[in-house]
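Good morning C.,

I know you're traveling, so I'll keep this short. The sequence:
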Amino acid sequence: MALTRRQFLRRSGIAAAGGFFGPSLFGNPFLQRALAQTIGDRYFITLFLNGGNDGLGTIMPYDNGGGSLRTHYELARRDDGGGLRIDAGPGSGDTHGLDQAMPLTPFLDPNTGAQLGFHPGLQAFRDMYDDGHLVVLQGCGYPEPNLSHDVATNIWETGDPLHSLPSNKGWIGRHLEDEYTPTQIPGVTIGNRVAGELEQAGTSVLAISRLSRFGFPFDSEYTSDNAAKSAAFAALYADAANSGIPISEFIGNSGLSTAEAAASYPQLHGAYGTERPVFNALYDDQSIGGGTSMTRDLREVAKIIYGVAKGVPNINSRFFQVNNGGYDTHSDQGGGQTNGRHYSLHREVASAVKIFFDDLADMAQGQSDGRQNLPEKVCVLVWSEFSRRVIQNDNGTDHGTQGPMFLIGHGVNGGVVGNHPDIDPVIIDANQGNTVYSQSPGDPFRSTDFRDVYGTVLKHWLSVPPATVQAMLPLDSPADASKYWKVANFDLPLF
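The C-alpha coordinates, ready to paste straight into the viewer:
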Protein backbone atom coordinates (compact mmCIF):
# COMPACT_ATOMS: atom_id res chain seq x y z
CA MET A 1 0.00 0.00 0.00
CA ALA A 2 1.32 3.44 -0.95
CA LEU A 3 2.16 5.82 1.86
CA THR A 4 0.15 8.99 2.12
CA ARG A 5 2.01 12.29 2.42
CA ARG A 6 1.21 12.48 6.11
CA GLN A 7 2.40 8.93 6.75
CA PHE A 8 5.59 9.66 4.83
CA LEU A 9 6.22 12.81 6.84
CA ARG A 10 5.58 11.15 10.17
CA ARG A 11 7.61 8.03 9.50
CA SER A 12 10.55 9.95 8.12
CA GLY A 13 10.55 12.51 10.92
CA ILE A 14 10.19 15.34 8.43
CA ALA A 15 7.02 16.66 10.08
CA ALA A 16 8.96 17.47 13.23
CA ALA A 17 11.76 19.00 11.18
CA GLY A 18 9.21 21.14 9.38
CA GLY A 19 8.04 22.55 12.69
CA PHE A 20 11.62 23.54 13.54
CA PHE A 21 12.89 24.80 10.19
CA GLY A 22 9.63 26.32 8.98
CA PRO A 23 7.77 25.79 5.71
CA SER A 24 10.80 26.70 3.58
CA LEU A 25 11.86 23.08 4.04
CA PHE A 26 9.04 22.05 1.74
CA GLY A 27 10.42 24.10 -1.15
CA ASN A 28 13.14 21.45 -1.57
CA PRO A 29 12.52 19.89 -5.04
CA PHE A 30 13.54 16.40 -3.89
CA LEU A 31 11.06 16.52 -1.02
CA GLN A 32 8.37 17.92 -3.31
CA ARG A 33 8.74 14.90 -5.58
CA ALA A 34 8.53 12.56 -2.59
CA LEU A 35 5.38 14.29 -1.39
CA ALA A 36 3.60 14.22 -4.76
CA GLN A 37 1.96 10.81 -4.32
CA THR A 38 -1.59 11.98 -5.00
CA ILE A 39 -2.23 15.15 -6.99
CA GLY A 40 1.32 15.08 -8.37
CA ASP A 41 2.01 17.86 -10.85
CA ARG A 42 -1.66 18.78 -11.14
CA TYR A 43 -4.04 21.47 -9.91
CA PHE A 44 -7.72 21.39 -9.00
CA ILE A 45 -10.11 24.35 -8.93
CA THR A 46 -13.75 24.52 -7.88
CA LEU A 47 -15.88 27.33 -9.30
CA PHE A 48 -19.07 28.03 -7.36
CA LEU A 49 -22.06 29.65 -9.13
CA ASN A 50 -23.48 31.22 -6.00
CA GLY A 51 -27.26 31.63 -5.77
CA GLY A 52 -28.66 28.63 -7.60
CA ASN A 53 -27.95 28.58 -11.34
CA ASP A 54 -30.91 27.85 -13.65
CA GLY A 55 -29.90 24.51 -15.18
CA LEU A 56 -32.70 24.47 -17.77
CA GLY A 57 -31.56 27.92 -18.86
CA THR A 58 -27.97 26.71 -19.10
CA ILE A 59 -28.21 23.46 -21.07
CA MET A 60 -31.52 23.18 -22.92
CA PRO A 61 -32.98 20.75 -25.47
CA TYR A 62 -32.77 21.92 -29.09
CA ASP A 63 -35.12 19.19 -30.31
CA ASN A 64 -37.00 16.15 -29.03
CA GLY A 65 -34.76 13.41 -30.36
CA GLY A 66 -36.56 10.21 -29.42
CA GLY A 67 -38.43 11.83 -26.52
CA SER A 68 -40.30 14.99 -25.64
CA LEU A 69 -37.70 17.24 -23.99
CA ARG A 70 -38.07 20.19 -26.36
CA THR A 71 -41.87 20.01 -26.24
CA HIS A 72 -41.83 20.02 -22.45
CA TYR A 73 -39.25 22.82 -22.40
CA GLU A 74 -41.47 25.01 -24.55
CA LEU A 75 -44.43 24.34 -22.25
CA ALA A 76 -42.39 25.43 -19.24
CA ARG A 77 -40.60 28.49 -20.63
CA ARG A 78 -42.51 31.28 -22.39
CA ASP A 79 -41.26 33.24 -25.39
CA ASP A 80 -43.26 36.44 -24.80
CA GLY A 81 -42.08 39.56 -23.00
CA GLY A 82 -40.24 38.35 -19.91
CA GLY A 83 -40.19 34.84 -21.28
CA LEU A 84 -37.07 32.75 -20.68
CA ARG A 85 -37.39 30.38 -23.61
CA ILE A 86 -34.41 30.33 -25.96
CA ASP A 87 -35.45 29.44 -29.50
CA ALA A 88 -33.47 28.48 -32.56
CA GLY A 89 -32.25 31.60 -34.34
CA PRO A 90 -32.67 35.18 -33.13
CA GLY A 91 -36.47 35.05 -32.95
CA SER A 92 -38.83 36.07 -30.14
CA GLY A 93 -36.93 39.24 -29.38
CA ASP A 94 -33.65 37.42 -28.64
CA THR A 95 -30.60 39.08 -30.12
CA HIS A 96 -28.88 35.71 -29.76
CA GLY A 97 -30.80 32.49 -30.23
CA LEU A 98 -29.91 28.92 -29.43
CA ASP A 99 -28.14 28.51 -32.78
CA GLN A 100 -25.46 30.89 -31.53
CA ALA A 101 -24.13 28.36 -29.03
CA MET A 102 -24.64 25.02 -30.76
CA PRO A 103 -21.47 22.89 -30.79
CA LEU A 104 -20.14 21.52 -34.06
CA THR A 105 -19.47 18.12 -32.47
CA PRO A 106 -22.31 15.81 -31.31
CA PHE A 107 -24.02 17.22 -28.25
CA LEU A 108 -26.74 14.74 -27.41
CA ASP A 109 -28.67 13.68 -24.35
CA PRO A 110 -27.57 10.03 -23.74
CA ASN A 111 -31.11 8.99 -22.82
CA THR A 112 -33.42 10.56 -25.42
CA GLY A 113 -30.92 11.39 -28.16
CA ALA A 114 -32.22 14.96 -28.10
CA GLN A 115 -29.78 17.51 -29.42
CA LEU A 116 -28.72 19.88 -26.66
CA GLY A 117 -27.62 23.49 -26.76
CA PHE A 118 -25.61 25.82 -24.56
CA HIS A 119 -27.14 29.10 -23.45
CA PRO A 120 -25.97 31.77 -25.94
CA GLY A 121 -23.92 33.43 -23.20
CA LEU A 122 -21.84 30.23 -22.93
CA GLN A 123 -20.23 30.46 -26.37
CA ALA A 124 -16.78 30.13 -24.81
CA PHE A 125 -17.91 26.88 -23.14
CA ARG A 126 -19.23 25.70 -26.50
CA ASP A 127 -15.80 26.33 -28.03
CA MET A 128 -14.09 24.37 -25.25
CA TYR A 129 -16.63 21.57 -25.72
CA ASP A 130 -15.83 21.45 -29.45
CA ASP A 131 -12.14 21.23 -28.57
CA GLY A 132 -12.83 18.23 -26.31
CA HIS A 133 -11.92 20.13 -23.16
CA LEU A 134 -15.30 20.32 -21.41
CA VAL A 135 -17.64 17.73 -19.88
CA VAL A 136 -21.31 18.54 -19.31
CA LEU A 137 -22.63 16.53 -16.35
CA GLN A 138 -26.42 16.48 -16.53
CA GLY A 139 -29.02 15.93 -13.82
CA CYS A 140 -26.68 16.35 -10.84
CA GLY A 141 -28.37 16.17 -7.47
CA TYR A 142 -28.90 14.18 -4.28
CA PRO A 143 -31.78 12.63 -2.29
CA GLU A 144 -34.02 14.74 -0.07
CA PRO A 145 -32.93 17.99 -1.76
CA ASN A 146 -32.90 21.16 0.31
CA LEU A 147 -33.85 24.49 -1.29
CA SER A 148 -32.30 26.76 1.33
CA HIS A 149 -29.24 28.55 -0.07
CA ASP A 150 -27.16 28.11 3.08
CA VAL A 151 -28.13 24.50 3.79
CA ALA A 152 -27.80 23.40 0.16
CA THR A 153 -24.43 25.11 -0.19
CA ASN A 154 -23.18 23.30 2.91
CA ILE A 155 -24.41 19.99 1.49
CA TRP A 156 -22.44 20.47 -1.71
CA GLU A 157 -19.37 21.74 0.13
CA THR A 158 -19.26 18.76 2.49
CA GLY A 159 -20.55 16.09 0.07
CA ASP A 160 -22.78 14.91 2.90
CA PRO A 161 -26.51 15.37 2.06
CA LEU A 162 -27.88 13.18 4.84
CA HIS A 163 -25.34 14.29 7.46
CA SER A 164 -23.78 10.84 7.74
CA LEU A 165 -20.32 12.09 8.71
CA PRO A 166 -19.31 13.09 12.24
CA SER A 167 -17.89 16.48 11.21
CA ASN A 168 -18.71 19.33 8.84
CA LYS A 169 -15.42 19.30 6.95
CA GLY A 170 -15.28 20.05 3.24
CA TRP A 171 -15.09 17.19 0.76
CA ILE A 172 -11.72 18.44 -0.50
CA GLY A 173 -10.75 19.45 3.01
CA ARG A 174 -11.00 15.84 4.18
CA HIS A 175 -8.48 14.94 1.50
CA LEU A 176 -6.17 17.83 2.44
CA GLU A 177 -6.32 16.81 6.09
CA ASP A 178 -5.24 13.27 5.18
CA GLU A 179 -2.39 14.30 2.90
CA TYR A 180 -0.83 17.49 4.25
CA THR A 181 0.50 18.87 7.54
CA PRO A 182 0.08 22.27 9.26
CA THR A 183 3.45 23.39 7.86
CA GLN A 184 2.09 23.24 4.30
CA ILE A 185 -0.36 25.41 2.40
CA PRO A 186 -1.96 23.22 -0.27
CA GLY A 187 -5.05 25.38 -0.86
CA VAL A 188 -6.12 28.96 -1.52
CA THR A 189 -9.59 30.49 -1.63
CA ILE A 190 -9.80 33.63 -3.74
CA GLY A 191 -11.98 35.59 -1.34
CA ASN A 192 -12.19 36.84 2.22
CA ARG A 193 -12.89 33.49 3.90
CA VAL A 194 -11.84 29.88 3.44
CA ALA A 195 -14.35 28.11 1.19
CA GLY A 196 -16.41 25.32 2.70
CA GLU A 197 -14.98 22.73 0.29
CA LEU A 198 -11.50 23.32 1.74
CA GLU A 199 -12.41 23.51 5.42
CA GLN A 200 -10.70 21.05 7.79
CA ALA A 201 -8.41 21.10 10.81
CA GLY A 202 -5.21 19.43 9.68
CA THR A 203 -3.42 21.81 7.34
CA SER A 204 -3.26 25.45 6.31
CA VAL A 205 -5.46 27.10 3.68
CA LEU A 206 -5.25 30.76 2.73
CA ALA A 207 -8.05 33.19 1.89
CA ILE A 208 -6.66 35.84 -0.46
CA SER A 209 -8.79 38.40 -2.27
CA ARG A 210 -5.83 39.94 -4.12
CA LEU A 211 -2.18 38.93 -3.89
CA SER A 212 -1.11 42.56 -4.10
CA ARG A 213 -2.95 43.31 -0.85
CA PHE A 214 -2.06 40.11 1.00
CA GLY A 215 0.46 40.44 3.80
CA PHE A 216 1.18 40.37 7.50
CA PRO A 217 -0.92 43.05 9.26
CA PHE A 218 1.91 45.28 10.41
CA ASP A 219 1.23 48.75 11.76
CA SER A 220 1.58 50.99 8.69
CA GLU A 221 2.64 53.98 10.78
CA TYR A 222 5.68 52.33 12.39
CA THR A 223 7.30 50.38 9.57
CA SER A 224 10.78 50.57 11.13
CA ASP A 225 9.66 47.94 13.64
CA ASN A 226 8.48 45.42 11.03
CA ALA A 227 11.62 43.28 11.08
CA ALA A 228 11.60 43.06 14.87
CA LYS A 229 7.91 42.19 14.89
CA SER A 230 8.46 39.47 12.28
CA ALA A 231 11.25 37.97 14.36
CA ALA A 232 9.13 38.10 17.51
CA PHE A 233 6.18 36.37 15.88
CA ALA A 234 8.48 33.76 14.30
CA ALA A 235 9.95 33.00 17.73
CA LEU A 236 6.51 32.66 19.29
CA TYR A 237 5.34 30.36 16.48
CA ALA A 238 8.50 28.25 16.73
CA ASP A 239 8.07 27.85 20.50
CA ALA A 240 4.49 26.76 20.01
CA ALA A 241 5.45 24.37 17.18
CA ASN A 242 7.94 22.63 19.48
CA SER A 243 5.82 22.72 22.65
CA GLY A 244 4.68 19.10 22.52
CA ILE A 245 1.07 20.26 23.00
CA PRO A 246 -0.98 19.27 19.92
CA ILE A 247 -3.11 22.42 19.67
CA SER A 248 -0.08 24.64 20.27
CA GLU A 249 1.92 22.70 17.70
CA PHE A 250 -0.82 23.20 15.14
CA ILE A 251 -1.04 26.94 15.83
CA GLY A 252 2.73 27.27 15.73
CA ASN A 253 3.20 25.34 12.50
CA SER A 254 0.31 27.00 10.71
CA GLY A 255 1.48 30.38 12.02
CA LEU A 256 4.98 29.82 10.62
CA SER A 257 3.64 28.79 7.23
CA THR A 258 1.15 31.67 7.08
CA ALA A 259 3.75 34.25 8.07
CA GLU A 260 6.10 32.99 5.40
CA ALA A 261 3.26 32.95 2.88
CA ALA A 262 2.50 36.58 3.72
CA ALA A 263 6.05 37.40 2.65
CA SER A 264 6.08 35.13 -0.42
CA TYR A 265 2.68 35.22 -2.14
CA PRO A 266 2.50 39.00 -2.77
CA GLN A 267 5.69 38.75 -4.85
CA LEU A 268 3.78 36.63 -7.39
CA HIS A 269 1.66 39.65 -8.30
CA GLY A 270 4.63 41.74 -9.44
CA ALA A 271 6.38 38.83 -11.15
CA TYR A 272 3.30 37.88 -13.16
CA GLY A 273 2.61 41.48 -14.18
CA THR A 274 6.19 41.97 -15.32
CA GLU A 275 6.69 38.63 -17.07
CA ARG A 276 3.20 38.20 -18.55
CA PRO A 277 2.01 41.69 -19.53
CA VAL A 278 -0.08 40.55 -22.53
CA PHE A 279 -2.28 38.14 -20.58
CA ASN A 280 -2.29 40.40 -17.57
CA ALA A 281 -4.06 42.90 -19.84
CA LEU A 282 -6.31 40.31 -21.52
CA TYR A 283 -8.02 39.54 -18.23
CA ASP A 284 -9.20 43.18 -18.30
CA ASP A 285 -10.18 43.24 -22.00
CA GLN A 286 -13.95 43.75 -22.06
CA SER A 287 -14.16 42.95 -25.78
CA ILE A 288 -13.42 39.29 -25.00
CA GLY A 289 -15.41 39.12 -21.77
CA GLY A 290 -12.69 40.38 -19.44
CA GLY A 291 -12.83 43.13 -16.87
CA THR A 292 -15.11 41.17 -14.51
CA SER A 293 -14.76 39.90 -10.97
CA MET A 294 -14.45 36.36 -12.35
CA THR A 295 -11.55 37.20 -14.68
CA ARG A 296 -9.82 39.06 -11.87
CA ASP A 297 -10.23 36.11 -9.50
CA LEU A 298 -8.96 33.56 -12.01
CA ARG A 299 -6.00 35.83 -12.75
CA GLU A 300 -5.04 35.50 -9.07
CA VAL A 301 -5.16 31.71 -9.44
CA ALA A 302 -3.05 31.98 -12.60
CA LYS A 303 -0.44 34.01 -10.73
CA ILE A 304 -0.12 31.31 -8.07
CA ILE A 305 -0.01 28.44 -10.57
CA TYR A 306 2.64 30.34 -12.51
CA GLY A 307 4.69 30.64 -9.32
CA VAL A 308 4.31 26.97 -8.42
CA ALA A 309 5.18 25.84 -11.94
CA LYS A 310 8.30 28.02 -12.00
CA GLY A 311 9.43 26.65 -8.65
CA VAL A 312 9.16 29.89 -6.68
CA PRO A 313 10.21 29.07 -3.08
CA ASN A 314 7.42 28.58 -0.52
CA ILE A 315 4.66 28.57 -3.17
CA ASN A 316 3.08 25.10 -3.30
CA SER A 317 -0.70 25.54 -3.45
CA ARG A 318 -2.54 23.26 -5.89
CA PHE A 319 -6.17 23.48 -4.73
CA PHE A 320 -8.25 26.60 -5.33
CA GLN A 321 -11.80 27.89 -5.01
CA VAL A 322 -13.39 30.84 -6.79
CA ASN A 323 -16.93 32.13 -6.38
CA ASN A 324 -19.23 34.04 -8.73
CA GLY A 325 -22.48 35.41 -7.30
CA GLY A 326 -25.75 36.67 -8.73
CA TYR A 327 -27.58 33.46 -9.69
CA ASP A 328 -30.61 33.93 -7.42
CA THR A 329 -32.72 34.91 -10.43
CA HIS A 330 -36.26 35.14 -9.13
CA SER A 331 -36.88 38.07 -11.47
CA ASP A 332 -35.45 39.75 -14.57
CA GLN A 333 -33.50 36.61 -15.48
CA GLY A 334 -33.67 37.15 -19.21
CA GLY A 335 -33.49 34.62 -22.03
CA GLY A 336 -30.90 34.79 -24.78
CA GLN A 337 -30.75 38.59 -24.94
CA THR A 338 -27.25 39.96 -24.58
CA ASN A 339 -28.50 42.52 -22.05
CA GLY A 340 -30.16 39.82 -19.94
CA ARG A 341 -28.96 38.99 -16.45
CA HIS A 342 -28.44 35.27 -17.07
CA TYR A 343 -26.64 35.99 -20.34
CA SER A 344 -24.24 38.34 -18.53
CA LEU A 345 -23.56 35.80 -15.78
CA HIS A 346 -22.91 32.99 -18.24
CA ARG A 347 -20.68 35.10 -20.46
CA GLU A 348 -18.72 36.31 -17.44
CA VAL A 349 -17.88 32.79 -16.25
CA ALA A 350 -17.34 31.13 -19.63
CA SER A 351 -15.15 33.95 -20.96
CA ALA A 352 -13.08 34.04 -17.77
CA VAL A 353 -12.43 30.29 -17.86
CA LYS A 354 -11.49 30.50 -21.55
CA ILE A 355 -9.03 33.37 -20.95
CA PHE A 356 -7.58 31.45 -17.99
CA PHE A 357 -6.90 28.30 -20.03
CA ASP A 358 -5.51 30.35 -22.90
CA ASP A 359 -3.16 31.91 -20.35
CA LEU A 360 -2.06 28.46 -19.15
CA ALA A 361 -1.45 27.33 -22.72
CA ASP A 362 0.69 30.39 -23.35
CA MET A 363 2.65 29.77 -20.14
CA ALA A 364 3.44 26.26 -21.36
CA GLN A 365 4.76 27.16 -24.81
CA GLY A 366 8.37 26.12 -25.26
CA GLN A 367 8.89 25.34 -21.58
CA SER A 368 10.62 22.29 -20.10
CA ASP A 369 9.96 23.04 -16.43
CA GLY A 370 6.73 22.85 -14.41
CA ARG A 371 5.00 25.08 -16.96
CA GLN A 372 5.15 22.38 -19.62
CA ASN A 373 1.68 21.04 -20.53
CA LEU A 374 -0.02 23.25 -17.92
CA PRO A 375 -3.50 23.07 -19.54
CA GLU A 376 -3.40 19.27 -19.12
CA LYS A 377 -2.47 19.67 -15.45
CA VAL A 378 -5.38 21.91 -14.45
CA CYS A 379 -8.98 20.79 -13.87
CA VAL A 380 -11.93 23.09 -13.06
CA LEU A 381 -15.20 21.80 -11.56
CA VAL A 382 -18.19 24.17 -11.87
CA TRP A 383 -21.17 23.70 -9.53
CA SER A 384 -24.13 25.52 -7.99
CA GLU A 385 -26.04 24.77 -4.78
CA PHE A 386 -29.24 23.93 -6.67
CA SER A 387 -30.98 24.60 -9.98
CA ARG A 388 -34.26 26.46 -10.53
CA ARG A 389 -37.87 25.38 -11.02
CA VAL A 390 -38.74 24.00 -14.43
CA ILE A 391 -41.70 26.34 -14.97
CA GLN A 392 -40.72 30.00 -14.87
CA ASN A 393 -42.48 32.50 -12.64
CA ASP A 394 -43.38 35.98 -13.99
CA ASN A 395 -39.93 36.71 -15.49
CA GLY A 396 -37.56 34.60 -13.44
CA THR A 397 -37.26 31.23 -11.74
CA ASP A 398 -37.74 29.96 -8.20
CA HIS A 399 -35.48 27.54 -6.28
CA GLY A 400 -35.30 24.07 -7.85
CA THR A 401 -33.43 20.80 -7.64
CA GLN A 402 -31.14 19.07 -10.15
CA GLY A 403 -28.90 20.89 -12.58
CA PRO A 404 -25.74 20.57 -14.68
CA MET A 405 -22.14 20.65 -13.54
CA PHE A 406 -19.12 21.25 -15.79
CA LEU A 407 -15.67 19.71 -15.69
CA ILE A 408 -13.10 21.62 -17.72
CA GLY A 409 -9.48 21.03 -18.68
CA HIS A 410 -7.28 19.66 -21.42
CA GLY A 411 -7.00 16.42 -19.44
CA VAL A 412 -10.74 15.60 -19.37
CA ASN A 413 -12.77 13.41 -21.72
CA GLY A 414 -15.00 16.05 -23.26
CA GLY A 415 -18.64 15.16 -23.88
CA VAL A 416 -21.97 14.70 -22.14
CA VAL A 417 -22.32 12.47 -19.06
CA GLY A 418 -25.62 11.74 -17.34
CA ASN A 419 -29.23 12.17 -18.37
CA HIS A 420 -31.17 15.37 -18.80
CA PRO A 421 -33.70 15.56 -15.93
CA ASP A 422 -37.28 14.58 -16.68
CA ILE A 423 -39.24 17.81 -17.22
CA ASP A 424 -42.56 16.18 -18.11
CA PRO A 425 -45.31 18.42 -16.61
CA VAL A 426 -46.99 15.39 -15.06
CA ILE A 427 -43.82 14.51 -13.17
CA ILE A 428 -42.90 18.01 -12.05
CA ASP A 429 -46.47 18.96 -11.09
CA ALA A 430 -46.49 16.04 -8.68
CA ASN A 431 -43.22 17.28 -7.17
CA GLN A 432 -43.91 20.97 -6.57
CA GLY A 433 -42.55 21.97 -9.95
CA ASN A 434 -39.22 20.21 -9.53
CA THR A 435 -37.41 17.35 -11.22
CA VAL A 436 -37.12 14.08 -9.31
CA TYR A 437 -33.92 12.54 -7.98
CA SER A 438 -33.78 8.87 -8.95
CA GLN A 439 -31.23 6.09 -8.64
CA SER A 440 -33.43 3.38 -10.11
CA PRO A 441 -31.34 1.40 -12.65
CA GLY A 442 -34.34 1.13 -14.96
CA ASP A 443 -35.17 4.83 -14.94
CA PRO A 444 -34.21 6.43 -18.29
CA PHE A 445 -33.91 9.76 -16.44
CA ARG A 446 -31.69 8.34 -13.69
CA SER A 447 -29.91 11.14 -11.83
CA THR A 448 -26.19 11.79 -11.54
CA ASP A 449 -25.44 11.88 -7.83
CA PHE A 450 -22.94 14.68 -7.28
CA ARG A 451 -20.96 12.43 -4.93
CA ASP A 452 -20.15 10.17 -7.88
CA VAL A 453 -18.63 13.23 -9.54
CA TYR A 454 -16.63 14.08 -6.43
CA GLY A 455 -15.52 10.48 -6.00
CA THR A 456 -14.41 10.21 -9.63
CA VAL A 457 -12.35 13.38 -9.23
CA LEU A 458 -10.79 12.10 -6.01
CA LYS A 459 -10.01 8.68 -7.46
CA HIS A 460 -8.91 9.56 -10.98
CA TRP A 461 -7.59 13.12 -10.76
CA LEU A 462 -6.22 13.15 -7.22
CA SER A 463 -5.26 9.44 -7.14
CA VAL A 464 -6.98 8.73 -3.83
CA PRO A 465 -7.41 4.97 -3.18
CA PRO A 466 -10.98 3.71 -3.78
CA ALA A 467 -11.49 2.56 -0.18
CA THR A 468 -10.44 5.97 1.08
CA VAL A 469 -12.79 7.70 -1.35
CA GLN A 470 -15.70 5.57 -0.16
CA ALA A 471 -14.89 6.38 3.46
CA MET A 472 -14.86 10.09 2.60
CA LEU A 473 -18.19 9.80 0.74
CA PRO A 474 -20.27 7.17 2.61
CA LEU A 475 -23.34 5.67 0.97
CA ASP A 476 -26.83 6.58 2.14
CA SER A 477 -28.31 4.48 4.93
CA PRO A 478 -32.04 4.46 3.96
CA ALA A 479 -32.97 1.18 2.32
CA ASP A 480 -34.76 2.40 -0.81
CA ALA A 481 -32.20 1.92 -3.58
CA SER A 482 -34.36 3.75 -6.11
CA LYS A 483 -34.47 7.00 -4.12
CA TYR A 484 -31.11 6.98 -2.35
CA TRP A 485 -27.45 6.67 -3.30
CA LYS A 486 -26.74 3.03 -2.52
CA VAL A 487 -24.21 2.12 -5.25
CA ALA A 488 -21.23 4.38 -5.85
CA ASN A 489 -19.82 4.97 -9.33
CA PHE A 490 -16.44 6.58 -8.93
CA ASP A 491 -15.52 5.66 -12.51
CA LEU A 492 -17.60 8.15 -14.46
CA PRO A 493 -15.94 8.67 -17.88
CA LEU A 494 -14.53 12.07 -17.03
CA PHE A 495 -10.77 11.49 -17.47
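Safe travels,
E.
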